[in-house]
Amino acid sequence: xxxxxxxxxxxxxxxxxxxxxxxxxxxxxxxxxxxxxxxxxxxxxxxxxxxxxxxxxxxxxxxxxxxxxxxxxxxxxxxxxxxxxxxxxxxxxxxxxxxxxxxxxxxxxxx
Amino acid sequence: xxxxxxxxxxxxxxxxxxxxxxxxxxxxxxxxxxxxxxxxxxxxxxxxxxxxxxxxxxxxxxxxxxxxxxxxxxxxxxxxxxxxxxxxxxxxxxxxxxxxxxxxxxxxxxxxx
Lengths: 111, 113
Fold this sequence. Notes:
The complex is a heterodimer of chains A (about 110) and B (about 110). In chain A, about 0% of the residues lie in helices and about 55% in strands. With about 110 residues, chain A is an all-beta fold. Chain A has one domain (about 5-110): Immunoglobulins (Immunoglobulin-like, Sandwich), CATH 2.60.40. In chain A, the strands form 2 sheets. In chain A, strands 2, 4, 5, 9, 10 and 11 form a 6-stranded mixed β-sheet that branches. Chain B has about 110 residues and is an all-beta fold. The interface between A and B is medium-sized, with 23 and 26 residues.
């Protein structure tokens, strides 16, 4: 029973264009969501978070959108850069420490 | 301002041996979490500890696995009598408070031969 799903295992985007990574969840109790980026042989790096009281949070080139009714969130990266090539994980929790992670989407930004 | 540190980065053990994985949280963080990542899967929560206390070990197998976070020193994840299925990347994370973002270490890649 996968409560957090990232249905696209991989995504390729041209440099300078927008990357959109999607994440769906099933548990309506989740109220805090995070995105992490992971390079090979490294640990996940925290990128951006959003609480359920918001529908958008922005940090530089990264914006996360939350659609509670659809139980869907997305991470937008604009403009995409080759250094953004990594695996992106979304994670969801209900106000506590126990985050459920998706299986990740591998983003490749083509120069 | 060191981040979360884990050692060793790579660990090879034969079946039946013990594996000890160490994690030093970020300075000022007293909350430590261990996760396991199997190939092609997401990170799975194993255990949450504060200094000298196990708060939640619901994600940890009941047998052979144990974790501690002593008053002094790093947190230790211990796997006794390892089997091939224990081969995975083990990540440690720490946070300032339990509901805050978690910051991850580089992981320990355990290979059981």
